Amino acid sequence: MVSSTALTSKVASGSPYQLDNPQVARASSALLRHIKSNQEEKEKSATKKTLIGDNDEDSDAEDSSISNEAVWLILTTKKHVVDKNRLKPGKIAVPHSLNSSPSLSICVITADPQRGVKDIIADPIFPQELSSRIDKVIGFSKLKARYQSFESRRQLFSEHDVFLADDRIITRLVPTLGKIFYKSSKRPIPIRIAEIEKVDGKRVKKDPKKKPAKEERSAAFATPLIVAKEIERTLNCAAVHLAPATTAAIRVGSSKFTADQLSENVAAVVNGLTEKFVTKGWRNIKALHIKGANTMAMPIWLASELWVEDADVVEEGQDVPAIEGAKNSKKRKSIADQKPEEKKAKKSKPAADDDDEEKGSSRKEKLQQLKAKALEDGDAVIAAPKAAGKQKRKST
Asked: pTM (2 decimals)?
């Protein structure tokens, strides 16, 4: 059957498909004020005096963690992100770096052999300011061998602020590092430190099935200047880790940012998401929110359309073709609604079977009559000897 019921109605104006910058600025300033007020309350409640005295190092570490709370952008899409290329960990450049601290501790996880990256960082051409912040370089094979226990992973997690990983092994780190890393804001950020081969200005793709020789492996890394430039660029990016779902969280700032800095980072991340990571771009975005670690989410953009394609919308008065599944269900219902008399009529036997039944019933009656007659004859035979025995006793 054909139904003319409208599923929804189109919005005449349509979606704006762009951020409302004044709304983002208002939401950013309100969120930062709320976070700072909560931090002040925590600082007042955290100042406890003891008889021995306060430990200055512990108090400084606690104050720094309280005053530098992360701010997240919450992305909600209309359809699941299922493309494997879009689900790979990525990054988006932001105007205000999230890792600008001079005391930043960096750990680099690289493809084997790790000696090649260590030699690059120790090279005199490599910038000294950046090498001083790289505290650890570890290869993938040694990472799997040394950090198998939960305690060792947790110790590695607490020793460093940022984890950078070679993009050739980034997808293999999830089972190796576990939920300690991937349920926090310290997920490894991909960096490209392999040498890119070009022929006539075009990049040559390598066959992943062919394993290079040991000599080629050591020479597979880029030059020190290129690696340094890649690391610096990555530190000025926001990490993006999408899941096959409709919701994702991207860290876009901290409570130390101003409202303008936070709104500029939000705009840059949203543009990067719509261009590279979200299928169909703006048409697939349902909502955008910003929130702190322990705050409510504040909306900055809400879609006025709940569909992705205009073809998914049915205009008022437009006929909707019946679905094949609905046809099959109607067939099943019609079979179930049949009366039991009709079902019995379909199972009725032909006339020849009726004659056989009559013959069988008459035969049974004859057998029963013969059986009854045989029983009567048996009783008569048993009664005769008994009478003869009584007569003999009387004669004696």
From this structure: 0.67
